[in-house]
Amino acid sequence: GDACKDGACLPGAATVCDDANPCTSDSCDKAQGCVYSPNSLSCSDSNACTSGDACKDGACLPGTATVCDDANPCTSDSCDKTQGCVYSPNSLECSDGNACTSGDACKDGACLPGVATVCDDANPCTSDSCDKTQGCVYSSNSLGCSDGNACTSGDGCKGGACLPGAVTSCDDGNPCTADACDPTTGCVAKATVGPCSDGSACTSGDACASGKCSGSKVNCDDGNPCTADACDPKTGCTAPPAADGTPCASGGACVTGVCTIGSQQYPAPSCKVILATQPSSKSGLYWLDPNKAGAFQAYCDMVTQGGGWTSLVHVSPISKLNFTVPHTEVALSSAAAFWKLAALPTAKVTAIAYNGRPNAALEATAASPSATGWTWQGKEFVNPAGCHVVQQLILNQAPSEAPRSYGNPHFNAGMGIPAAVLGAAVATTSTLSVATVANYPSIHIGCVGWNVLKDPIIWVR
Length: 461
Description:
Oligomer: single chain
Shape: rod-shaped
Strand content: 35-45%
Mean pLDDT: 76
Radius of gyration: 71 Å
């Protein structure tokens, strides 16, 4: 673009040397003109996915490939030649940095925690927990546990293991079971048979049946109506006194635990009842009321031939007797004594008929007219003047046979002397006790044909 002007060649516009290549240094040489010399400057290869591009030999060579990593597991990192790094959200699995969650997942470019981790090693001897850094932590404890054996109790944890406790006692306190232990089911009680004790003093003959110990109820009846019989399971039969006034025997009453009978307040029906009620009763006077017609005193013989004899005396005034006889007077004055008769050793004793009945009377014939042939309480009866030598003891007279005696139809009237009585009476060395013939209440001693002992003493029971 130079041009001549005024005879001179004037320079035109300066030449712009620009080959648009950043990798050449553009210059202009007056001789050569534009010169494009290669350089080593930084350049851009127009690819956003490289960095550190540099010129070489006049060309822009790509540099290092760009690393697109935003350290976010929830973005999928890539590089676009135009945009460069691109971080696209994904839904991959991730970790929220907490060891106590599992199944963490990405959403909207962020890692969201999953389900909380369940730390359970199924070991009762560890306390399970979770540490955000370590995760599950199983620490040994000292809690109670079960070693899986039903035959131990009080099992406990130590060092992370369950140690067995004391051996289980399977004694059920039942004497009628054989006790054992099964590791799976525990105590087992098998029923047994045989004698046992139910621990109660109120049963006897205890024995096992169907796993239970039982016996027969103890009879605590002591036969005493004046005790309130009961049974204490610990001590057995008890017999505290019954309440005063409790009826006992026939017409008696309990007083301080004793059956009181034969007193004026509590008369008895007979001497026999008194002795049966109070076996230690002594001979003496007691109150009787056999017919509930009013009580009266009577003498009871509690010794002779088993005791229990009642003396029944019908006394007539001495003035009404046909004469005074020593033995009658003695009998009246000693009504409380037991009347024992015996034949004199020198007398002849014969069982004779009386009013046509054989063996109805005993006849004692003395050796002399002055003797009666009989003794009373060891003393000889004196034969009253005018009496015959033969004296009779008439037993079992009938009412029609007065005046020999009054008789009593309620006492086997009309029967002879029993053989046992007869045998004892005939022997001259034996004593004939009225008790022996108490069932024969009509007794007459005196002159034959006379009513000497009009009021005899009769013993009954």
